[in-house]
Amino acid sequence: MRLVIARCSVDYTGRLNAHLPLATRLLVHKGDGSLLVHSDGGSYKPLNWMSPPCSLTTEEPGDEESSAGVTEVWRVTHKKTGDALRVQIYEILSDTSHDLGVDPGLQKDGVEADLQRLLAEQVDLIAEGATLVRREYPTAIGPVDLMVRDAAGAAIAVEVKRRGDIDGVEQLTRYLELLGRDPHLSPVQGVFAAQEIKPQARVLAEDRGIRCLVLDYEDMKGVESGIPRLF
């Protein structure tokens, strides 16, 4: 990755035209060929950019540009659309390159898989004395997240979401309809579990006899297999 701080102006031509007048900016040229133009404000968003696949070439400035103080010109061209980003550089204040290696990617904490795993380890949150039958319990239209049995042996199907909306309730309703046809499970109770359940989803769930369970992810992370942490 090459990081250049320069006094520059930028012109974008293609499906739209845009102009950034002369100012000091950060130019980020990544290993994938993309170029991002940043200012010292505007949060994380670049002022302008060119996404890959693209290529960067350096050009000599024209006579008029040279007389105006331009020392070099970058042209970044998109290989498929032909859109171009033309950067007129007047002065380079800093120019560094770094090999960042292969990035493992973003690993999200608190996704549905994490909630499902934690709830499977803490099934007492679903019903006191409950036991886990299986995660990803199969049905003809896909697996329900958790199948558990309460202390009396009644089957409970649990659908887990980060944010519970009407679509999630509809999904669990379809699972319950199919599972209820199995004489070894019927009657099957339904639990809709999420970190946040929208009011409309709660109304629909309760109207269909589905119990809603709000999950506290941070609190659940503090417990593993029913054993509280000391710290």
From TrEMBL:
Its main location: cytoplasm. It comes from the Bacteria. Keywords: Cytoplasm, DNA-binding, Endonuclease, Hydrolase, Nuclease. It holds the Pfam family NucS_N. It is found in: Cytoplasm. GO terms for molecular function: endonuclease activity. Cleaves both 3' and 5' ssDNA extremities of branched DNA structures. Belongs to the NucS endonuclease family. This is Endonuclease NucS. It comes from Microbacterium istanbulense.
